[in-house]
């Protein structure tokens, strides 16, 4: 994308799937296998109930569409960080 889209204009790269912050947190906890509880700050405004990155520009400009679901992308990302964190701890 960086080589093909050289315009200084933001472009979203995502699965395009809608997700709530709660669902996202629960998915990250599930994938990581950590025993973590989620706490919500009820004093904050609620805002939108669901979010999804708009991917129309990347489809239009680069003829791109996602090949990973949100869960698949998170799984690979979390696994990469776990392996590289361990590698970094061993080599430092």
Can you walk through the features of this model?
With about 90 residues, the protein is an all-alpha fold. About 45% of the residues lie in helices and about 0% in strands. The chain has three helices and no strands. The chain has helices at about 20-30, 55-60, 70-90. Helix 1 (about 20-30) crosses helix 3 (about 70-90). It starts with 20 loop residues before the first helix and ends with a helix. The mean pLDDT is about 80.
Q: Overall pLDDT, averaged? A: 82
Helix fraction by DSSP (H/I, runs of at least 4): 40-55%
Number of E strands: 0
Q: How does the overall form come out from the CA principal axes?
A: globular
Straight-line N-to-C gap: 33 Å
Q: What is the count of helical runs?
A: 3
Alpha-beta content class: mainly alpha
Task: Provide a quick synopsis of the model.
With 92 residues, the protein is mainly alpha-helical. Helices cover 45% and strands 0% of the residues.
Show the helix and strand layout.
Layout: H1 21-32, H2 56-62, H3 70-91
Helix pairs in contact: 1-3
């Amino acid at each position: 994308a960086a080589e093909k889209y050289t315009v200084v204009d933001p472009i979203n790269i995502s699965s395009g799937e809608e997700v709530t912050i709660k669902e996202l947190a629960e998915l990250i906890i599930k994938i990581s296998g950590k025993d973590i509880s989620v706490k919500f700050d009820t004093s904050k405004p609620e805002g939108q109930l669901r979010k999804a990155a708009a991917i129309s520009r990347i489809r239009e400009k680069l003829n791109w569409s996602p090949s990973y679901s949100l869960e698949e992308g998170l799984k690979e990302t979390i696994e990469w960080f776990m392996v590289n964190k361990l590698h970094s701890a061993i080599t430092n």
